[in-house]
Design a protein that fits this description.
It is a single chain. The radius of gyration is 22 Å and the shape is globular. α3 packs antiparallel against α4, α6 runs antiparallel to α10 and α10 packs parallel to α19. By secondary structure, the chain is mostly helical.
């Protein structure tokens, strides 16, 4: 998935710069395969911690590609730092908010409402809807962290597998991230290809809905049988030993607290679309408040009062709650950042550029070509951002003269391809792996296949829409 810092860089760039391959094609493919194999073997066979395995995987890629050690380490640390700065801060703030939500009883309030109005059969559908609503304006990483305590509690209360409940929510988050502007991926493709934003937004929602249904509740039911997982105790309430908590925040207050960062980021996105003057005071305010880090920071501060004080917690209890939220996610931040480092080694090797040029020479439909380009670059680099930028830039000459609806479908085909088969070179893979307490094989059988279903079904819907409009 796209890290926060990556997104800012994408939107700030007018034209993408393609990294030239550092070695012949066969050598880069071999380096890619060796790097993946090293990571998988070290984690599954040697039982090495994923953080260390990702470092060795990055070194293996650079060694086989013929790069010197200094260059490889530079790429890895750049990717590590960028991901830690973007995703790491969001995970830490999100964990603070999630712990407040759990300890105050706010998560229980949401779960009681969801479970109370949904039968066990309908719960996955409800979670898919929640994921889609939260994912509409929110980056995947933030949405996942905010939803985790709710996903855990829903799984426990309903008796369903964590996967059966969680996969639909992940599908909702991921589909919105890949298909619907104003998310940075599709928005960047819209800008690069000159597509109409309104048409792309409408078609993006039309593509997202059926893909969420297929990859979410329908696949989640099957995945829950493959990988039965119980909810961990990461965000279990810890309300102290003195006295039992007499009250919990009301559902309306809890919902306000959860949706506050969503509204701030949505407001920023809408203001950026409708107010073109970047120096407009109203836009400047929302550009600040709607920045992911600021929005989550505001949510944490507000949550201390609406959730903490609203549940009768005193200052000491709130402080203890905030402090206890960080240790469980420290390892997650390191692993996710290391995944970003490994991805950067692949990006800097130029393998994405090489695969894009190979695919560009193939004589196929413009929509399928856009999808294939994004898929190849996504598989090689692990970055939806890089896949979107590179594939879109290579499609520039092929969309000239096409009607606006067709250009919008090309944007969505690129978005579908950028979601394909998230695996060990994607920081999002490790985020899901750690929060759901899965091993590598289980993560592939659930998360990776879900992403692939989203990608393929998204392409199918795009092709069907092409026949209609």
């Amino acid at each position: 998935m796209m890290a926060g810092a990556d997104m800012v860089a994408v939107l700030a760039a007018d034209t993408p710069e393609l990294t030239e391959p550092v070695a012949p094609g066969w050598q880069l493919i071999l380096a890619f395969l060796v790097g993946i194999a090293v990571i998988v073997v070290l984690i599954t066979v040697v039982k090495l911690h994923p953080f260390l395995a990702l470092i060795f995987g990055g070194l293996a890629v650079g060694f086989v590609a013929g790069e010197n050690l200094t260059t490889v380490l530079g790429s890895f640390t750049d990717g590590f730092g960028t991901t830690a700065a973007g995703v790491g801060i969001l995970i830490a703030l999100g964990a603070m908010f999630a712990k407040l939500l759990a300890d105050s009883g706010g998560a229980d309030e949401i779960v009681d409402t969801i479970v109370g109005h949904s039968s066990p059969r309908m719960l996955p559908w409800s979670m898919a809807l929640v994921g889609a609503i939260i994912g509409l304006p929110m980056f995947f990483e933030i949405g996942l962290v905010l939803l985790m305590p709710v996903i855990y509690l829903v799984a426990r209360r309903s008796g369903l597998s964590l996967i059966t409940v969680g996969i639909p929510a992940l599908a909702g988050l991921s589909a919105m991230h890949g298909f619907v502007p104003p998310h940075p991926g599709p928005l960047t493709a819209v800008q690069l290809l000159g597509a109409d934003l309104g048409i792309t937004l409408a078609l993006g929602v039309a593509v997202a809905i059926p893909t969420i249904v297929v990859a979410g509740p329908l696949f989640g039911k099957l995945a829950g049988r493959w990988v039965p997982v119980e909810a961990p105790d990461t965000f279990d309430p810890d309300r102290g030993d003195d006295a039992e908590q007499a009250r919990r925040p009301a559902f309306g207050i809890t919902l306000f607290s959860v949706l506050l960062p969503v509204v701030l980021m949505m407001g920023k996105a809408l203001v950026d679309i409708f107010i073109e003057d970047k120096n407009n005071w109203f836009r400047l305010i929302f550009d600040g408040l709607g920045t992911p880090v600021v929005a989550l920071l505001i949510a944490v501060i507000v949550g201390m009062f609406t959730l903490g004080r609203g549940a009768g917690m005193d200052r000491a209890a709130i402080t203890k709650c905030i402090e206890s939220s960080l240790p469980p996610v420290a390892g997650i931040i390191l692993i996710v950042a290391a995944g970003g480092g490994f991805k950067q080694v692949l990006v800097d090797s130029g393998i994405g550029t090489m695969l894009a040029r190979w695919a560009e020479d193939v004589n196929i439909s413009v929509l399928i070509l856009a999808w294939v380009l994004a898929v190849l670059i996504r598989l090689a680099t692990g970055s939806a951002t890089v896949a979107t930028i590179t594939a879109s830039s290579l499609m520039l000459g092929l969309v000239e003269g096409l009607p606006s609806s067709e250009v919008s479908l090309v944007v969505l085909a690129v978005g579908a391809g950028s979601l394909f088969f998230s695996h060990v070179n994607d920081a999002g893979f490790w985020l899901v792996n750690q929060f759901f307490r899965l091993n590598v094989v289980q993560t592939i059988k659930t998360w990776s296949i879900m992403e692939t279903i989203l990608s393929v079904s998204g392409l199918v819907v795009v092709l069907l829409l092409d026949l209609i409009i």
